[in-house]
Amino acid sequence: MTTPSSPTPPPDPTPPTRGASTIAVHGDGGRKSDWSPVVPPIVQSTTFVNPVGSTEEVLYTRYGNNPNQLEIGRKYALLEGAESALFLSSGMGATALAHLSILRPGDHLVSSLWIYGGTRRLFDEEFGRFGIEVTYVDPDEPRQWRASLRKNTRAIFIETPTNPLLRVIDLGPIAVTARSHGVALLVDATFASPINFRPLAHGADVAITSATKYLNGHSDVIAGAVAGSSSIIDEITRLMRLWGQAIDPHAAWLIDRGMRTLPLRMARHNENGMAIARWASGHPKITKVHYPGLATHPDHMVASSTLDGFGGMVGLEVEGGVRAAERLLKRLTLIQHAPSLAGVESLISEPRLTSHVALSPEARAAIGIADGFVRLSCGIEDSPDLVADLEHALAPS
Ligand SMILES: *Cc1c(COP(=O)(O)O)cnc(C)c1O
């Protein structure tokens, strides 16, 4: 029996009252027992000893019920404001299984036109084998969302903010359309992270993130995650056990360590993105700056009212086209020329040769990606050092 002097810790405050920084560090954890490690150990084990005769579900790392896997799922669910969440071995794995959990052969998917190149190829090259048809909608024509729905439409997929123009889509009206037609809304908000934008609070049914990016934040792990209702996450878990995209415990442990500083990192990414966008707006060699925090951005109003931060991604158009962009890339010393994004270090890439390589120069220009366009992922360095690197690289020789 509990006596007044017993060491039983007081009950934890209910997790939803905790702030994102507290959740990022502690998850739903409370007081730990004496002598337990403060940092959860890596449970690098595929299998676990079973009680003889037990009919309980076995623990097996491909099933996603290893302690490291469960830990990050709970933490991410709390950050997204979701009932449940699950990590997978890549962002593409997360996108693929989220869709397969909802779509059946013969179903129809409505997708935004402004999506990650890998996702576009998944839809165009793979969904056909399941008899799933995809219709693309230009989000600049918002009436098309409703107009594209068919009797067999089962889901709408949106990515926001988008790559590389940083367009921000207003989910509210699309969520209303989806709900009234009984269609699921799936949203890849990788570029925002749950610190800047939580899709479920805006009517989405499933939030998808490439944890390779901000969630882990150190450019050393490939992973993805999905968050939503328990019934959707249970179905995605069932698929994961069969299709085999469970995350390795060591990768999960690294993500847990990365997530502890997510809110802190995002604050700096947001600050640096804004500082670089403002600096670039006044630079004579930069003809256009794409950043949702600038009043000149077409979605500045939507971004201001729906995001908690504008992020660290900035699109820059360099005067002089491809040659001027290549000169800039060759003269940078701190900012590395590499694809991918959202790590602590600043990276720069040319969408012309990475995400949008499949398009002709004319097709790229038609969607707003001019030659001379570079995408900068601002890290967490001191912004004056990033500005100095860019200034030097743009200066006449
Ligand atoms: C990188 C990325 C993905 C794919 O994630 P991987 O972890 O590389 O599989 C999906 N969506 C967006 C928006 C991304 O930036």
Structure description:
- It is a single chain.
- With 397 residues, this protein is an alpha/beta fold.
- It has 2 domains: 20-259, Type I PLP-dependent aspartate aminotransferase-like (Major domain) (Aspartate Aminotransferase, domain 2), CATH 3.40.640; 262-394, Alpha-Beta Complex (Aspartate Aminotransferase, domain 1).
- 36% of the residues lie in helices and 15% in strands.
- The protein is built from 14 helices and 12 strands.
- The strands form 2 sheets. Strands 1-7-6-5-4-2-3 form a 7-stranded mixed sheet, with helices on both faces.
- β5, α7 and β6 form a beta-alpha-beta unit.
- The longest helix has 20 residues, at 262-281.
- The chain is globular.
Short structural summary:
By secondary structure, the protein is of the alpha/beta class. Helices cover 36% and strands 15% of the residues.
Defining traits:
397 residues; alpha/beta; Aspartate Aminotransferase, domain 2; Aspartate Aminotransferase, domain 1; 2 domains; 7-stranded mixed sheet; 5-stranded mixed sheet; 12 strands; globular; disordered N terminus; binds pyridoxal-5'-phosphate
Topology:
Blueprint: H1 20-26, H2 67-80, E1 84-88, H3 91-100, E2 108-112, H4 117-126, E3 133-137, H5 143-147, E4 153-159, H6 171-180, E5 184-188, H7 193-196, E6 206-210, E7 224-228, H8 230-243, H9 249-260, H10 262-281, E8 286-290, H11 300-306, E9 313-318, H12 321-331, E10 336-337, E11 347-349, H13 361-366, E12 373-377, H14 383-394
Parallel strand pairs: 2-3, 2-4, 4-5, 5-6, 10-11
Antiparallel strand pairs: 1-7, 6-7, 8-9, 9-12, 11-12
Helix pairs in contact: 1-2, 2-9, 12-14
The site of pyridoxal-5'-phosphate has 16 residues, from helix 3 and helix 4.
